Every structure is written in structure tokens, then in C-alpha cells.
Amino acid sequence: MEQSNIRWKKYLPKSVLSLKDYSGRIFAADLAAGVTVGLVALPLAMAFAIASGLTPQAGIYCAVVTGFIISLLGGSKVQIGGPTGAFVVVIAGILAKHGIHGLFLCTMMAGVMLVIMGVTGLGKAVQFIPRPVVMGFTNGIAVLIASTQIRDFFGLRLEHNPGEFFARMKELVEHAGTLSLAATALGVASLAIILITPRINKRVPGYIVALVAGTAAAALLKLPVETIGSRFGGIPAGLPHLQIPEFHTALILPLISSAVTIAMLGAIESLMSCVVADSMSGDKHNPNVELVAQGVANIFSPIFGGLPATGAIARTATNIRSGAKTPVAGIIHAFTLLAVLLFAAPLARYIPMAVLASILFVVSYNMGQWGETFRLLQLNKSAVAVWLVTFGLTVMADLTTAVEFGMILAALTFIRNVAETTSVSPVTKDYILTGRAHVLHDKHIPDYVEVFTVQGALMFGAAQKLEVILHRLHTLPPVVILRLRGMSAIDSTGLGAIEDIAARLHTSGHHLLLCGAKEHPSRLIHQAVFVEQIGAENICDNIQHALDRAKQIMEATHGVSAVEQMQKP
Question: Burial of 134 by CB count in 10 Å (0-12 exposed, 13-18 middle, 19+ buried)?
Fold first, then answer.
């Protein structure tokens, strides 16, 4: 019976599993977090829809429907789902080619693909996308989103807003003389509020303060700026009309590549958000259950006039910081947005476009993760080449082409890296003597040390196997040694995985040491940017040096006598 319960648990959503220990105290925490993140999601949902070429209410409809479904059926306790910046470029392209009905059909096709991925256990397939590819298209999307908001931020009057990046930039430069001082001042002030608010009070969302203050200023001062009302005629109050999207068989083949892009983007961002949520909340998400929920949400979103959705990292982090404990917080977030839609929709007509543009500027900057990109580009030329191709094609061509070429280049780089690790050399006396320092059989491993060994290439597609360390996080001794003697190669994805493990261990009071890396992977490991994260003193030549370093750590934290006692065989 117990084994049967364990087997069924892997198919159940977190909302069901959370009911066992639910209480009034937990509900109070979920209620506060849900209302907070619901208010944060409001301007973001409208801004993403407008940036995609849709009406603002489409974003709210999407946030309500998908936010509810993803929290109810998902595999994470604190994940918040809804429209995100990752889809803006893709949606705009689909709308330009196939119209709104093509977008709805494409979204439902992507939803079916996500359900299939989850049901068949392909939730881990997205881990085979290399880190430079992910960072490349993320950076490219961030640049594109920011470029679409320049017009509204400065109040420029354009006859049309081209879809291509360089054509858009040319149009913006040619119409720079139409700049509106009122819109620019409002945009700059809103941007300042968003950036300054967290420094004053981290519990108050800067987006909400900017939205309320900017809207009030524009209305009270009667500023001559464009608003949601002047461009879209406001947001209709009440529930959306349910409508099954028109099914055109002729569109299926042309939309397959776009549907795959939406499905892969949805899977990548939702699972990335789940990983962030795990590190912040201490929970462990179920990737396959999460993908099924994402798929169901994207199947239902077009029925209510919504756009594609996925897990939202910023809103999920806000949810956790606001005290969320279970998926009930995400459900309350959806009902909060619904309440706004039912009772406060007419007020949305006064929201200035410059304020929404400032919000999207901050969102695009944050989603770009430029600090991590800078560190990635310091690793090696291969990572730079893959990133550059993916980033360039995302900006200049389209996301599907960028990911395809990025993956091809990454695969070729993988083959080259593996080939470089193959060598044939004679066994000499020096080789035997040097190898003895790496042998474990004659070493005593004290109780305060746990040794994990890596065999094979630690590259994209395999880097997630390091999670076995985190699975034992609560039973690990103070020092963890990662023995890399059997590791033939490593790439930026593998380095990132080690950095993530080191951060999680450090947060839980543990220490991570690396030892024994061979010549080829050792060159990457000793890059300054990686050494800075791990600590030069924690990267050891061999297992004996690592054990000596572990002893130093323990003596510094527990005292010499205590360590001597723990070292006894």
C-alpha cells in the first residue's frame, strides 16, 4: 500500500499534496501573497499583451485563466503562471503572418505538445538545450522587447511600428523629433520609482507604486500623453466571451514550427522558474506534472481570448517573498486579477502607455540576466560563438531560426570538445606516481566529508545529474567533495550546474570542494569568473589536497580537538 501511494504521488499536482497539512495559518500567508502577486501581475499582463500586438485585456484574461490552471494542476507549490516576455516576439510574428485565429490555434497546438511532453516523461528533455543557447535567445528577446517600448516611453508619433529590429530602429531615429516631453518625463519618473522602491521597502512592489503614481499624475495634471483608453478604448468590464477558436487545417503545417517554439519556450521558462522557486522555498518540483499543467493552461487560454503562458520567474519570486506556502496563493492571485477585471476595469483606461513602457524596460533588463551573460562570455570561445549566433539570429531573424542554428553549433562544439579529450599516451613511472594522489582506496574519509565522483562528460544534457547531491541535502555532512578525476570534459552548462550546487550547499551551511580535474576540463575550471564563485582555495589538485582542505574548514568551524575526534577510523 505504501509503495502504491508513493507511485501515485508522482502524478498528483502539488495543490492536492499540499492539502494534507493545510491550516488557517497557511491560508493567511497564501492570501497575503496571492493578493500581492495578483496586483504585481496586473500591469505586466497588460504590458506583455500590448507589446505582442494584442489588446491589454487579452493579457489579463490569460493571467486569470492560466494562472488558475497552472497553480491548480502544476508540479510546483509556489509557481505563478501567466503571460511573459519570452513570448512577445513569437506572438508578434504569428499575428503578422496568420492573424489572431492563427495565434489561438498555434497556442492550443503548443499546449497539446506540452501535455504530451509531460505525460511521456519528457520534462527533462529541455535540459539538453545548452546554456549559451538559452542565454542567447533570452538576451535577444530582452533587446527586442526593449526596442518595442522606445516609442511609448518617449511618446514618439510613428505612422507604423515595423516588426523587424533594424527597420524599427530606423523608424524611431527618423521620428526622434516627435518626442513628447510629458511622456518622457512620466516614463523616466516611473522608471525611477520602480528602481528606487525596493531599496526603501522590499515588500512593496515597485511596479504597483509606479502604476498608481504614474496614472494619478497623468490624470490629475491632465498630461497630454497616450493612455490605454486613447489607444484601445479602455478595458471591458466583466468576463470574456467563451469562443472555440476557428480550426483551419491549412494552417497546421505553417504553424508547426511556431507551435514547437512556443512549447519549448514554455517548457524552458516554466522549469527554470520552478528551479528558482525550489532554491528559494526549499521545495522540489515535479517537472512532468508541471508541463502537463502548462499544456492544459495553453489549451484553455485561447478559448477565453488569451495568449500563450508559462511560469513567470519574477512573479514566482514575488510570490515566495510575500510568504506563499502552497498553490492556493497562485489561485488567489488569479481571483485577484478576476476581481480587478470585474470591478475596476474602467479605471485601466487612465493608465499611460509611458508607464507600461517603463515597466517593460525593467522586465526586459531583468529577463536578460546580463550579469550571468557577461560571466558566460568569459569562459571560452565556443560558448561565445554559440551565444553570438543565437543572440544575433534572435534579433535579426526569428527565434525558431536562432534556436535551430544555436543547437547545431552547440552540437558541433560538443563533438569537438569530446574529441579533444581523447588521447593515447604511454604509461610511465611519473604517470603512476602522479596517479597515486588521486586514488581513494588508501585514503581515510572522515565522517564530516562526503565524496561524490563524476564519470564522463559533464556537459549540457548531463549536467542535471549533479542534482543527486541535492536529493541528499538534509543528510549530508558539513563538507562535500566533488571528485572530477573521471570527468572527461565540461562546458559552460556543466560549470553553471556546479555553481548552482555550490550556492545551494552554501545556503544550507555546507561547503563544496572540487578535486582532481584533468588537463582539458581543468582549463575551464580555472577561469577567473568560475574560481571567483567557487573560491580558489576550494579547487584542489587531488583528493588528498581536498581532504586536507576539508580538515582546515572543520578546524576553523568546530575546533581542532573536535576534528581529531571525528577523524578516528
Answer: buried
